[in-house]
Amino acid sequence: MDRGPQEPGPLIVTEDENLLDDLLRLCAAAGTLPAVAHGGSARAAGWESAPLVIVGEDCVHRLRDTGRRAGVVLIGRDAQDARVLMQAVEIGAERVLGLPDGESWLVDRIADAVEGDRRPALTVGVLGGRGGAGASTLACALAVTAARQGHRTILIDADPLGGGLDVLLGGEREKGLRWPAFAESRGRVGGGALAESLPQLHSLRVLSWDRGDSVTIPPPAMRAVMSAARRRGGVVVVDLPRHLDEAVSEALAQIDVGLLLVPAELRATVAARRVAAPARAALRDLRVVVGETPGPGLPEAEPARLLSLPLVGTVPWDPHLADSLARGAPPGAHAREPLARFCTEFWGRVLGGAEGAAGTSGTPGTGSSRPGGLAGTAGAAQSRSEDGGEAVS
Predict the structure, then answer these.
(1) Compositional bias of type Low complexity: which residue ranges (predicted)?
(2) Can you name the CATH fold of 122-351?
């Protein structure tokens, strides 16, 4: 589920108060709280168990009896100084850094160490083929269902004009950060720190909009937030607008599977063609979900055929859904509802029972109301900034 024990932070070994202040600040930027061996034994403070050890050059002498371990970074006033490089060899450091030049690299290294080698989240984006198709409702239901099954889940509202997914989930008053707080984000955002800062609704974390004026999210901020959510592992669901700008293109670049929700109507299918064209150019995998209509409509497979896209399945019409939402029940909350059943079957085929399992293969559904198997490929490359630090071999 969403909450769990705090990931262990790095160990800092230094007596230099100014350096300690700098390192504490960098750990906070990486979203973690370190242990500090300040005046005590590094071994007793967690030398062997810490995911990363950051050593000030003033304390190298304290480590001569601790033994070698991987994941040691030495901070020196001059990373090119021969004496500092010899100290790094002595303690088996993987890299020597000088601050402030090495700050960006060190924040990334701390975050990598704390978050570990967790498999990136399977990321599903939901698009409406036309206005009012129900894409936001489907996105919420997918997230609620994934969380109910025990997967780490983040729901990201990428549509500033959609009214807010926190409202749809009944959590507009829940404490936590909204999109405006991340508008200036650049570079690395810690996945754990991101999740802990967001409202928790129905066992999942939700990044939505506040009630103020619309805020434009710059592409670097979207890239940073999406990357952080993916690094946390589990499942990420993104509610996408039909109009694709540069920020939305950044989101699409990190989505494994795109679901285009198209009501079973000819006019809706024609409208969906205009949405599908740019989305298909940016997405690695775009598929159609057909929304059943209350009256006569197109045959189930026809929208997918007309759009030349694989069919995932059909969401059955539920005459009670509007009343359920009006009563404050989140989409997908009741396992027997048609929408919840669709989402449960979808995740069963995509995740195959393993949290964050990307690469699940299968044959797309072509004539069944059940979701077809999908081939999601998680693990978009993460860019990392480099500095002038010296790697020690």
Answers:
(1) 357-372
(2) Rossmann fold (3.40.50)
